[in-house]
Each structure stands twice: as structure tokens, then as C-alpha cells.
Amino acid sequence: MTHKALRISVGTRPLLALFAFGLLLVALSSGWQLRETTQRRAAETDAELSAIPLMYAGPLAYSLQQRLQQPEALHGLLRHILTRHQLRRVELRTHDGQQFRALSDDDSEPGQSAEFSLADTGELRLQAAAATVGDTLRRDPLLRSTLIHLALATALGLVAALLLDRWLLRRLHRLSEQASRFDPGLPALGWDDPGEPRPRELLQLEQAIDHVRTSLGDELHREQSRGRELQEEIARQHRALQQAERSLEAKRRELASMERHDALTGIGNRRAFDDALRREFKRAQRDQGRLALAIIDVDHLKPFNERHGRAAGDEVLRRLARRLAEHFQRDTDVVARLGGEEFVVLLPGFDAESAQGLLEVLREDWRAMAVPHGALPDEPPGEGIVTISAGLAASQPGHPYLSSQALIQAADEALYLAKHMGRDRLCIAS
């Protein structure tokens, strides 16, 4: 194809389609005309066969009479009838049994036939060629030429359509294939030859597809960027959530610990002590065992706080809690702070006498620490040490208590008695 042919607009294809449609209509019309002509020839042949006996009855009768003197005349007449009316076969049979015939050299199919009686002369048999489309075309040169030219024009139209698809519309096929597997990341579709002329419609279509590809590519890149940012944000939120969960778990453990531990001293609190007391008191009742309980109080802590500050008083409480934890280290021993300056020690398996010895050792050890008080009511300012008082009660087979509350109340009354007797001492409930 030349560059001039490539400049054909895509609009040529509809024109070519119209041209092919016109050729089809012409072909149909010619076919219809050919059919009508064939049928007309059949009717004409039938009428002509009927007219032949009338036309040649006289000449045939005369030729038969002169057949002895002029035998060639009869054969010539039969040959004339055969060629004049384009028949395949003409046969004359006399009453005495003689036959005279003329045959055509045409090998066409046999068609209509007829027999006629010639009065006293004999019988005449005629047979025409078949009225077919091929015979009609052979007999009608103009119609044959028209159909040949029509077939050539149709073939040329098909060839032109194939060439148009092959050289011009292949660009549309490539654009269609690329559109079906559209990917914004693919490079723009270009002509094989940069200098090749471009049909206007194809150029516009390529520009539109390139514009869509560019727009969608930019949008895809923006969406991918937003997707990455969203993934990073999700990852950050996930890490923050995990950190919050860890922090919450730590707070939960801390809260659980605070529910059973004293925040100031780190030993058990009143709740932990109450649970342990109920548990150990039931075990002592069930096993007829021993259970000792001591309540310990720091003497004159309020004036100490007023003189030295609450921080110093808190430190005294922490030091006493550490001493209690060091002196009572069995797995079954329970050391707790009841509140304020009061502490409690629960000693499963101990009676009053054995528990008294341990508490006296604790009291003497505490005195040995000699924590200066400096604010005792009966001492000169700057003198005296911080002391502790204790009340002890023990449940044992010979001296049981009806309830755990009765046991702790007995120890509290013993503590009150120790403070009333001057503090810095241990009293045992009777």
C-alpha cells in the first residue's frame, strides 16, 4: 500500500459496505431476472412446439410425396425445423412404418417433447432442449456478460475490503487488543514508522486512549501512594494498639497487685489478710490445729509525723514492714498492713507461747534499730526512740475461738491493753 492509500479515512469502510450491499442487490435482481427469463423461454418453447405442426404440415406432406424423387428434400426440411427452432430432436414416422429424423449436435439436457398427427401423412415427434439457467446464459450473451462483470466487481470489492482490514484497520485491531488488556503502565501505542501518515479518525482515537491511560495512570499512582500511607498508618495504629494493650495489661496487673498489696509498704493489705484469715481459721477448725494472730502498732506515730513530717513517718512504716517480712518468712505466714500504723501477723500452726517468743524477738530487734523519736509526750524534746506495741491471740485445742472475727477482736483488745499499760510491750489475750 502507498502512503496515498493509507490516507483513506475510516469512513471508507461504510462506503465499501454500501457498495457491496449494492452489488448484492444487483446480483439478486439479476438472478431474479435470469429465473424469469428461463421460465419465459420454457413457456415460449412450449408454444413454439405447438405451432410447428401448423407451420410445416404442408411442406412435410409435400416432401413425403416427393421422397422417392427427392429424398434429400425431406431430410433438409427436418434439419431446417431442428435448427430454426433450436430443437434437440425432430422425428417423422409414416403410416407404412418409415422413419425420418434429424438430431442436434448439442449435448444439452433433454427438455419438453410433443407428438403431433399429420392427418394422412404420419406422426411428428419433437423434443426441445431443457430451459435451464446455463442454457439461458448461453443463449443470451448480454445477460452473460452482465453477470460476469458483476462477479468481477464483487470479487474486487471483497479484495478491497480485505486490503482495507489488512493495511488500514489493523491499527484499530491493535488498539482494540490493547484496550482489552488495558494497563496504565504500558507505553503508548505508536505507529511502526514515525513518518507514516496517520488517518484522522485513528489519530483521534489513539490520542483519546493515551489521555485515558495517562489519567488513569496518574490516578493509580495516587491511589497506590494513598494505599501505602494507609498501610503505614494501620501499622502505626497496630503498634500503638499493641503498646496500649501491653500498658493496659501492666496496669491491670498493677491494679490486681494493688487490690491485695499495700501501696506504701508493699506487703499484703487488709483484703489479702481477711482472705488468709478466713482460709486459715477454717483449716484450724477442721484439723483442730493452732493459729496465732498478732496486731502490731507503732507507738506515738502521730506526734512523730507532726515533728518530722509524713514522709519520715512513712519511712518508719516501711522499715517496720521490712522487719516483719524478714522475721516471718514461712510460706504459711501472712504479714499485712491493716491501715494507718497498724500491722498484723498471722501464724498458722503456732500457739500463744511460741508466737510470743517470735514477737518478743521482733520487738527487741526493733528497739535495737533505735529510730529517734524526738516528740514523745513524756520525754524531753530530741530524746527517746520509736517503739512498737503488740496484742496476741491464739486459737488452739484448749482455747478455741468461735469465729475469725472473735480471734482478731481478741488480739485487738490485747493491743489496747498493751498501749494502756504504757506501750512498748506485748500483751496476750486471755
Structure overview:
The structure is a single chain. The chain has 430 residues and is of the alpha+beta class. It folds into three domains: 3-149, no CATH class; 182-260; 270-428, Reverse transcriptase/Diguanylate cyclase domain (Alpha-Beta Plaits), CATH 3.30.70. It has helices at 3-6, 12-65, 71-84, 133-139, 141-168, 170-180, 200-260, 270-287, 301-308, 310-327, 352-369, 404-420; strands at 87-94, 99-103, 110-117, 122-129, 291-298, 334-339, 342-348, 388-395, 426-428. It has a five-stranded mixed beta sheet with strand order 6-7-5-8-9, sandwiched between helices. It has a four-stranded antiparallel beta sheet with strand order 2-1-4-3, with helices on one face. β3 (110-117) and β4 form a beta hairpin. The radius of gyration is 68 Å and the shape is rod-shaped.
Number of helices: 12
Question: How would you classify the quaternary structure?
Answer: single chain
CATH class descriptor name of the largest domain:
Alpha Beta
Question: H/E element string?
Answer: HHHEEEEHHHHHEHHEEHEHE
Q: Based on DSSP secondary structure assignment, what is the total number of beta strands? A: 9
What is the gyration radius calculated from CA atoms?
Answer: 68 Å
Please name the fourth-level CATH homologous superfamily of the largest domain.
Reverse transcriptase/Diguanylate cyclase domain
Give the proportion of residues in helices: 55-70%
Determine the N-to-C terminus distance. Answer: 129 Å
Query: The CATH topology of the largest domain is what?
Result: Alpha-Beta Plaits
How many domains make up the coordinates? 3
Q: Beta-sheet strand percentage?
A: 5-15%
CATH architecture of the largest domain: 2-Layer Sandwich
Pick out the low-confidence regions: 1-7
The computed structural class is alpha+beta
Strand order of the largest sheet: 6-7-5-8-9
- Please describe the biggest sheet, giving its number of strands, its sense, and whether it closes into a barrel: 5 strands, mixed
Shape: rod-shaped
pLDDT average, as an integer? 81
